[in-house]
Recover the amino acids of this structure.
């Protein structure tokens, strides 16, 4: 897996194995995720694989479940991952020539990409607009942030956003720039309770004209 350092912030990132055997990621003491229930992270990838995505930009490496699910598909050509924290990248075991991880903010990485260069953009950098771990991520869920992701989508391409809860505001932001906006509840089992996480999607109009 290729990797380059893009920018640095001082944060305490801890990836540890808990007493129950689960791997856990924490940033500045805040729980981000573990590897116990990862169906929604993998579903994020599956939603765009079902639509035939071949070139995919992923915001947020985390423990790598979304990225590995993409790479399981032999039709996938390229996965570019933007991950804020170098320690998260350093702890990753993903080895695949189709995958490149850039250490940096996904907004910066998006801004560097040419217009219409991906079939899908997957954002799983935070818990969704209403439960932010990083306040600086708020803009990603707003219409301007959505527009930045849409710019790099090919016509017909999909933006998919992981969220802890459904969000009417995020649906509206997606609908400002995309067609066919949907929110899918992904059933998850959390501490012996049945709950749901969400993946919100929208498609760039297949008729959009991209200027060369
Ligand atoms: C919930 S985890 C992603 C989980 C991932 N989908 C998986 O399958 O393991 C969120 C990740 O996004 C990273 N992150 C947070 N804000 C970011 C940003 N603005 N740009 C890039 N990565 C970011 C965090 O450091 C963390 O690794």
């Amino acid at each position: 897996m290729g990797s380059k350092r893009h920018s640095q912030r001082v944060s305490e990132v801890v990836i540890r194995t808990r007493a129950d055997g689960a791997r856990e990621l924490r940033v500045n003491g805040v729980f981000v995720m573990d590897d116990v229930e990862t169906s929604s992270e993998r579903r994020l990838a599956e939603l765009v694989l079902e639509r035939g995505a071949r070139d995919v930009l992923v915001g947020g490496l985390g423990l790598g479940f979304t990225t590995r699910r993409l790479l399981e598909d032999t039709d996938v050509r390229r996965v570019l991952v933007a991950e804020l924290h170098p320690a998260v990248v350093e702890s990753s075991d993903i080895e695949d020539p189709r995958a490149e991880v850039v250490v940096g903010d996904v907004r910066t990485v998006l801004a560097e990409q040419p217009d219409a260069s991906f079939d899908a953009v997957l954002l799983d950098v935070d818990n969704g607009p209403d439960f932010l771990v990083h306040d600086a991520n708020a803009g990603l869920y707003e219409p301007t942030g959505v527009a930045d992701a849409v710019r790099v989508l090919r016509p017909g391409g999909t933006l998919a956003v992981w969220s802890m809860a459904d969000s009417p505001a995020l649906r509206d932001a997606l609908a400002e720039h995309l067609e066919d906006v949907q929110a899918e509840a992904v059933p998850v089992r959390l501490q012996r309770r049945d709950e749901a996480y969400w993946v919100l999607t929208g498609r760039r109009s297949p008729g959009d004209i991209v200027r060369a």
Remarks:
- Residues 3-9 have pLDDT under 50 and may be disordered.
- The helical segments are 39-49, 65-71, 86-90, 106-112, 143-151, 168-177.
